[in-house]
Amino acid sequence: MERITVTLAPERERTRLLVMRGPDEVLRGILGPPSEMHPHAAVSLLEGLSLWHQQPLSVVLCVGGQSRGFELGLCDALGLGRRSLHYEVGIVVDEPHQRPRRLGGPGDFRALRQWTALERMR
Questions:
Q1: Residue 74 lies in a domain
Q2: In a domain? residue 117
Q3: Which of 9, 10, 38, 94 is deepest in the core (most CB within 10 A)?
């Protein structure tokens, strides 16, 4: 049985939801904004999906930028994802793409950056 992954992206005017089983989409939806939801709505939704599929869920909570992820009640006081019998929440920080800072100076360091990237992949 393939793991169910639920991705939640709360924003100011809506909350996007994507549920996947392996590479396949199971459910996709647009929910209301976090500011208008019941405090236990996200937890109840995840518990219901877990019970429906009869397995624990992997939850990806996208925060940052326009996100309002901490209003969903899926994080603890330190901002870490909660874990329960029905789900485990991982946090993804969605920040605008910025060009990496490069130091000026002599020489071409492109090859060294590539080697560093290859080493990180190990």
A1: yes
A2: no
A3: 10
- Determine contact, residues 58/90, Cβ cutoff 8 Å: yes
pLDDT at residue 67, as a whole number: 56
**Three-point CA angle 75, 19, 57, nearest 5°:** 50
**Domain residue limits at 89:** 4-97
- The span from the CA of 2 to the CA of 14, in Å, is 29
9 residue type, one letter: A
Distance of alpha carbon 87 from alpha carbon 85, whole angstroms: 6
Q: Is residue 58 part of a domain?
A: yes
Question: Is this structure's pTM higher than 0.70?
Answer: yes
Dihedral over Cα of 92, 93, 95, 100: its sign? negative
What distance in Å separates the CA atoms of residue 113 and residue 16, rounded to the nearest whole number?
A: 36
Does residue 102 have a pLDDT over 70?
no
The tally of domains found in the chain comes to: 1
